[in-house]
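Before the break, one more example. Copy the sequence into your notebook; we will annotate it together after we see the structure.
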Amino acid sequence: MALELSPMTEADLPTYTDIDLAAFADHPLTAVLWPQGRSPTDQAHLTARTRQTFLSDPTAHLLKVTDPGTGTIIAVAEWHRCPARNDDDQPSSNEKENNEPSSTPKLSGEDPMPTTEWAPGANVRAKEFFIGTFHRTHAEVMSARAHWLLSVLVTRPEAQGRGAGSMLVRWGVERADVEAWPCYLEASERGKPLYERFGFRGVKSMEMDLGPWGREGVWVRNTGMIREAGGSAS
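Here is what the structure looks like once it is written out:
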């Protein structure tokens, strides 16, 4: 039976967190960000954060791919529709001095979360450094441009190669093409070939040394990638 793509429901959010855990279990950065592993308490915290996005972020589109033969969700994605910003959207000098937020949202994911909002088992210093690097790269590359952002795409390891990832990428690029907007994402080395097939190209390389975090000689390479509107797929 053909795989099915549909919006996530609130009841699906714990599964989203579980798939994310499974998909990155062997990634070298995971051991740095979660030195003791992700506990049930951490998983619940992450699900609560995703629930906040699901319920309160008007830019967010959370999607799932289900195997109808088993009823199992095998892949999930989080796309964000990020409208253009102009000078009026920037914080005023008074807001900056008083640390008061502008009434206009920033780029989705532009700044790292406050320390108090990290899960209890997280390596906060590592999270702030690595996640902050990804967020700053996104803001630097896209600046004020309107775009669609693919912030998350994860597939159960045992379900990779069945086309679920392609379905989730295609959902977003088709909507971006309708609006003649570009798409942006940050890809691991493992994920890059999928995105390149949809016309994404690397524009910013992020090479991060895990040595200072106890992983001597280990580097992580991520790539900021853009697909301009109408980018050809192979």
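The chain has seven helices and seven strands. The first strand starts at residue 4 and ends at 7. Try to locate both features in your own notes.
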